[in-house]
Amino acid sequence: MSPSQATAPWLVFGASGQVGRQVLERCETARQSLLALSRHPHQGPESAMLGWRCARLPDAVPALPPAAAILSLGPLDLFAEWLAQWQPQRGAPRIVALSSMSVVSKAASPHAGERALAARMRQAEQLLADRCDELGLPWTILRPTMLWGGASDRTVSRLARLALRWRVLPMPRGRGLRQPVHVADVAAAVIAAVGCERACGQRIACGGGERLAAVELFRRVHASLPQRTLILPVSAVLLRLMGTMGRFSRSAAAIGRLEQDLTADNAQLETLLGVHPRSFSPRAPDWTA
Q1: Other CB atoms within 10 Å distance of the CB of residue 263
Q2: Facing residues of 181 across strands?
Q3: Are 262 and 105 in contact (CB under 8 A)?
Q4: Residue 86's pLDDT is what?
Q5: Which one of 8, 31, 133, 203 is at 20 to 30 Å from 118 when CA atoms are compared?
Q6: What is the pLDDT of residues 44-75, one digit of tens each?
């Protein structure tokens, strides 16, 4: 990174999301200058180290200043579309983007929508890599597993909130391994990737620090709930019945994967980026904050 780039801000797309909030907090502590971009006007105060602008990917992004790095922490496909038409003013900002391990885990899903999602994300990854190579920009793509800890994910947090609302937690039997990763650990990986030359041109898996059976994941969610909640065992017969109903086919496909191992190899995450994710030990604030 050149001296001029060292003083330039980082541009953060998706700054108001669950990983984005963690990145902003860590960069504020480290005194890293940021320009955060989000779809809606920011209501809080700005500072000398943090500014905000409204931007809607892919075609409603204002003129941007030269940057040392550009972080994509929201929808990867929209960011890749914008990048395909963006022309950097000067310098070669580092591009770090979040994708998902769904690129791998949903590629052969029985649900057509999930297969299409995996294909779309893979195409977005390739579009980003090709465009960065064309412009001579260093890039890194991070693929997190199931996110938790930000209270806004669509998997375990959504399950916990539904259980709190209905006072019932469905408990399907699942022996497949899961590796949920905390949003703060993903944020740490994003920041580390900006300054890691050996991570250039890499797609790096980001799993949690623990592999546990899906049924154990459900048990830990239940144990963390702040109010008494009944456990409702869900049988394999009911799951097969749901799979025949179009309205529930996506949910049935997700539950059907409970017998599959959905894990990640953290070798690059730990050796290249120096990030050692925490185990899955949720508390009540993780679902309601």
Answers
A1: 18
A2: 147
A3: yes
A4: 94
A5: 133
A6: 666 778 899 999 999 999 999 999 999 999 99
| C-alpha–C-alpha distance, residues 161 and 256, integer Å | 21
**Is omega for the bond preceding 45 within 30 degrees of 0, making it cis?**
no
Beta strands in 74-229 (DSSP E): 94-98, 139-144, 147-148, 168-172, 177-178, 181-182, 202-206, 212-213
* Residues listed for the chain: 289
Q: Which amino acid is residue 29, in one-letter code?
A: T
| Of 83, 81, 200, 190, nearest in space to 143 by CA | 190
**Amino acid at position 249, single letter:** S
Q: What's the DSSP call for residue 277?
A: P
Closest CA to 254 of 142, 126, 159, 130: 159
Q: Check: CB of residue 95 under 8 Å from CB of residue 137.
A: yes
Q: What is the dihedral of CA 193, 194, 199, 201, to 10 degrees?
A: 120
C-alpha distances (whole Å) from 219 to each of 117, 215, 232 are: 29, 6, 12
Give the 3-state secondary structure of residue 15: coil
Phi, psi of 230 (to 5 degrees): -75, 150
Tokens 């650990």, located at residue: 185
The pLDDT confidence band at residue 100, using thresholds 50, 70 and 90, is: very high
Sequence-distant (≥ 6) Cβ neighbours of residue 247 within 8 angstroms: none
* Average pLDDT score, the chain: 88
Angle at 253 between CA 248 and CA 256, to 5 degrees: 120
pLDDT tens-digit readout, 252-270: 566 667 788 999 999 999 9
Structure tokens at 175: 């022996």
Pairing assessment for the beta strands 177-178 and 212-213 based on DSSP bridges: antiparallel
Q: Is 155 helix (H, G, I), strand (E, B) or coil?
A: coil
Q: Is the pLDDT of residue 205 over 50?
A: yes
User: How does DSSP classify residue 214?
Assistant: H
Question: Using H for helix, E for strand and C for coil, what is the string for 218-278?
Answer: HHHHHHHCCCCCEEEEECHHHHHHHHCCHHHHHHHHHHHHHHCCECCCCHHHHHCCCCCCC
Tokens of 49: 């180290």
